[in-house]
Specification:
InterPro entries: DUF5319. This protein is mainly α. A three-stranded mixed beta sheet has the order 2-1-3.
Length: about 140
């Protein structure tokens, strides 16, 4: 049996580690040069940074209430994609770092009632901040 011989390091915690990281026989290595990320412009970068800050607030408010993350309608397939808090945070950080989002496996058999939309989060946070003194 051939062992891996090293530890797997991932710069985007929250996403599953790349099982072929630093492996010279990585079957996807040939694809890396085909679609380089496009760096974000200043406006896009600011929007992603604001999303990261908002995500932190939403998680602090909603995770204790049993919300596991966000549901986003995929522009490519028009299906709902369920992202836990850590995966979404990792996706946004990677977008900031290199303008790409690494492919990842969708949630297995998610329970839609455990996920909410960005709009729900915004409305919930607005209500909490308007009518309460939040402890986040």
């Amino acid at each position: 049996m051939i062992g891996y011989g090293g530890s797997v390091h991932d710069q985007f915690p929250g996403l599953p580690p790349d099982p072929f990281a630093d492996d010279p026989s990585d079957p996807a290595a040939a694809l890396e040069g085909l679609d380089p990320g496009i760096p974000l412009d200043d406006g896009e970068r600011l929007a992603v940074e604001e999303d990261l800050a908002d995500l932190d607030v939403y998680e602090r408010l909603l995770a204790p209430r049993g919300v596991l993350g966000l549901v986003v309608v995929c522009e490519d397939c028009n299906d709902d994609h369920y992202h836990d808090w850590d995966m979404l945070r990792a996706n946004l950080r990677q977008l900031l770092a290199d303008g790409t989002i690494r492919p990842h496996e969708p949630a297995v058999d998610p329970h839609p009632e455990d996920y909410v939309t960005w709009d729900y989060c915004r409305g919930y946070a607005d209500a909490v901040f308007r009518y309460n003194e939040p402890r986040i």
